[in-house]
Amino acid sequence: MRIANPHLLLRRLHSLFGLLPVGAFLVFHLWENSQSRFGAAHYNGEVVAVLQRLNYLPVLEIVVIALPLLFHAGYGLVILSQMRAEPRRYRYLRNWLYVMQRVSGIGILLFLILHVGMTRIESIWRVTVREDLFGHMQHLLTQPWIFTVYVVGLLLSVLHLANGMATLGIVWGLTTSAYAQRLFGSVCALFGLLLVAIGIHGLLGFLS
Amino acid sequence: MSTINLRIRRQDNPDSQPYWQAFSIPAAADHNVVSVLLALRDNPVTTSGERVAPVIWDHNCMEEVCGSCAMLINGVPRPACSALIDSLIQPIRLEPMPKFPVVRDLLVDRSCMDASLRRVKAWIEIDGAWDTGLGAPRIAPVAWSANYLYSRCMSCGVCLSACPQFGSHSDFIGAAPLAQVRLMNAHPTGRYDKTERLHAIMGAGGLSDCGNAQNCVRVCPKGIPLTTAIGELGRQTTLQALQDLFGESTPSL
Predict the structure, then answer these.
(1) B248 interaction partners in chain A (CB closer than 8 Å)
(2) Alpha-carbon dihedral A200, A153, A42, A23, rounded to 10 degrees
(3) A116-145 as b/e, with b when 16 or more CB fall inside 10 Å?
């Protein structure tokens, strides 16, 4: 039987990319940057330098992170037009999470333009960003508005991933019973709280 | 309370503007929304004393099994016959079911649900070159009782009107037809057409247009586990997509 209709495959690809590689990269990214706690010398010399020494790094960044993220975001924006949410009429947790999943998607997109622009993109022409990323981040995050934007970006990203994992379980048919969906939802919520803790820990590390 | 106060959204024809009218009828024991509308039909006079055309709505069984009287009652989609007046805050606001084209007053056109059921082949094929039925099909009691839940669907459309992904803006078929795919695929004879049904819901407007807001399962008057059906169909379509991509496994039976 040949694939007659690519619709389901596109949706499933969108779902899969949210978890792998994009979600997995978020987990790695938060863990990586939580090491800001160990100070500028360790962060610049051990954490950032090791990554910067990777062979074919730009290829990995584009193929493993940027392109799947762009597909996930772009297709997400297309799907967004199907929403006619009524969060005030139907005050259920899952309905609110449904709305938040879409709102956070837009928020994350705006945050990433700022975040990637003032770090990875800026480092292309500013050597100091590459050589002293810790100092650069410290300079950014000591400004209250940027720190606030980063905290909001972190919360939205983790919410989007955690809730995305919970619905991914339903979409792929991992969780079918209401009990399983609730249980896995709680597991995802705990996972999200852990990620927020790691992320806040990392952000505060740059201020010390 | 000695009277029952109603605010009803009226609409004279499919293309005209809706407007509101207030009515008041004497209170009586054991009224539900349908019986109130029946009483109002005898004397359709608004609270300002104007005699108006009787309110049009759909109703039939009066025991919450036909699904025809579903409407928006105090902002919540539900069957009118099982909406007891004593349990409602007054004035009771009655509106036609959202997301469906209004025919007149509280009467809506739900024929899109029939089209969706046809599209997903929500029936069991018993005509063939040989006796497809194979006599009375045997089925485990556990499977039977799980299937029974989905067989109670009365196509009232409440799950669809509460769905943020369903409406004139989208071609999503909604939870009710999807649950029937779950039911028919589990039937001993119906499973022969499982692949065809799964392919029907794997296209645009099918299963993957569900946004997992899960309002459907909250508002379903029959308590049908719609989101479990969606999860089970997620699993069935995952396996079906793998079979489509990588080839069939050896058919069982």
Answers:
(1) 1
(2) 100
(3) eeeeeeebeeeeebbebbbebbbebbeeee
Assign B1 a pLDDT band (cuts: 50, 70, 90): low
Minimal-distance CA residue of chain B relative to A95? B213
A81 touches chain B (CB under 8 A): yes
Give the domain range for residue A36. 6-205
In a domain? residue A112: yes
**Is residue A119, in this structure, part of any structural domain at all?**
yes
In the prediction, which pLDDT does B252 show?
Answer: 63
- The answer to whether B23 and B8 are in contact (CB under 8 A) is yes
Residue A1 counted as domain residue: no
Residue A49 lies in a domain: yes
Choose among A3, A5, A98: nearest Cβ to B213: A98
pLDDT tens, position by position, for chain A (208 residues)? 556 678 999 999 999 999 999 999 999 999 999 999 999 999 999 999 999 999 999 999 999 999 999 999 999 999 999 999 999 999 999 999 999 999 999 999 999 999 999 999 999 999 999 999 999 999 999 999 999 999 999 999 999 999 999 999 999 999 999 999 999 999 999 999 999 999 999 999 999 8
Amino acid at B23: F
Count of domains observed in chain A: 1
Q: How far is B183 from chain A (nearest CA, A)?
A: 15
- Rounded Cα distance between B110 and B225, Å, is 22
Query: Exposed/middle/buried for B21, CB within 10 Å: 0-12, 13-18, 19+?
Result: middle
Residue B130 has pLDDT above 70, yes or no: no
With an 8 Å Cβ cutoff, are A95 and B232 in contact?
Answer: no
The reply to whether B242 touches chain A by the CB within 8 Å rule is no
pLDDT at A74: 97
Closest chain B residue to the Cα of A177, Cα to Cα: B228
pLDDT tens, position by position, B76-106 = 999 999 999 999 999 999 999 999 999 999 9
- Selected residue of A5, A7, A8, A165 to mutate for chain B interface (largest B Cβ count, 10 A): A8
Residue of A nearest to B74 (CA): A89
pLDDT at res. B26: 94
Question: Does residue A91 sit at the B interface (CB-CB below 8 Å)?
Answer: no
Q: State how far the Cα of A98 lies from the Cα of B216, in Å rounded to an integer.
A: 13
The verdict on a CB contact (< 8 Å) between B211 and A176 is no
Residue B194's contacts (CB-CB under 8 Å, 6 or more residues apart) are B185, B236
Give the CATH number of the domain where residue A98 resides.
Answer: 1.20.1300.10
